[in-house]
Amino acid sequence: MFFLFLAGEPEFKYVGNMHGNEAVGRELLIFLAQYLCNEYQKGNDTIINLIHSTRIHIMPSLNPDGFEKAASQPGELKDWFVGRSNAQGIDLNRNFPDLDRIVYVNEKEGGPNNHLLKNMKKAVDQNPKLAPETKGVIHWIMDIPFVLSANLHGGDLVANYPYDETRSGSAHEYSSCPDDAIFQSLARSYSSFNPAMSDPNRPPCRKNDDDSSFVDGTTNGGAWYSVPGGMQDFNYLSSNCFEITVELSCEKFPPEETLKGYWEDNKNSLINYIEQIHRGVKGFVKDLQGNPIANATISVEGISHDVTSAKDGDYWRLLVPGNYKVTASAPGYLAITKKVAVPFSPAVVVDFELESLSERKEEEKEELMEWWKMMSETLNF
Ligand SMILES: [Zn+2]
């Protein structure tokens, strides 16, 4: 129904059921798709605006084989692990290229802090250790200029943000990424609308669970427990996409009659989280003739993580409220820096028109010629 693509419209995604036995996210995403269509037709302004301003991708199950395995167990009570992996026995959320290790080395020795997979696409296709689901989703992440995403899991109740893997390799350690401030805010934008998740008096899912890293229903990934090879950090380090991981329920495969309650608890969170895509700074990078500049670098002073413009020159840079210096640069062009005051929302439009260096050289040559002409006339050469 909504296949229209517009330049300047940001792309969002929800991924569910990566662990096949964690079924709540899968069901909620099907509810969500129905809800968006129904409310659109009913004339709900919030939903109409959201759909008209955002390209929303919904993948209810990244691991249908695991789900079938989990679902085929007889009786209400399901094993805690059966169906977690894919049909090959691979845990998909440990199967992504471990880009955290690369960026942690680059932090010390210098090197890129973003788009780390740029020249490694072929290596991904030829890597026999990557599951077909992993390869498929990597291509999806690389091919579409996603801005914001959430990966829905189950087994606990918290919104988890990068980094998931600790710097030192220890099991628990707060592992902030350069965008810690906006990620905390994004995680809260989900948890604060879920009454169970944000309840400060909620007991842990299981008596001996260590929830000490949880704050208002959110946690830094590494502070909770270190996850190497996860999808969340892969999104952040390989693309422009900011992803959080949401644990939706203490039970991984709850009885069917509880699903309605989970939907009620998560409906507003799911919508509010998509709306976060319209925060920070956005705009177009073009040359002086108005041609789009794809792959221009957008950097923010004080945050060592750059994003890039998409094929129409459009870019999105999620930021918490504050005053920033934003620079657009591209090879062969003069960089431009602009100061911008960012409110909570909506995103501030900041367009950049970059002058190409060859144009600049032509201008300088012409100026020089004119100067010579003037000089020669004055001095009667
Ligand atoms: Zn999971």
UniProtKB/TrEMBL annotation:
InterPro entries reported for this sequence? CarboxyPept-like_regulatory (IPR008969), CARBOXYPEPT_ZN_1 (IPR057246), CARBOXYPEPT_ZN_2 (IPR057247), Peptidase_M14 (IPR000834), Peptidase_M14_domain (IPR050753)
What GO terms fall under cellular component here? extracellular space; transport vesicle membrane
Kindly provide the name given to this protein in its UniProt entry. Answer: Carboxypeptidase E
- What species does this protein belong to? Zosterops lateralis melanops
- Active site at E247
> Which keywords annotate this record?
Carboxypeptidase, Cytoplasmic vesicle, Glycoprotein, Hydrolase, Membrane, Metal-binding, Metalloprotease, Protease, Secreted, Signal, Zinc
In the UniProt record, does the keyword Membrane occur?
A: yes
Localization in the cell: Cytoplasmic vesicle, Secretory vesicle membrane; Secreted
Q: Which cofactor does it need?
A: Zn(2+)
- Example of a GO MF term: metallocarboxypeptidase activity
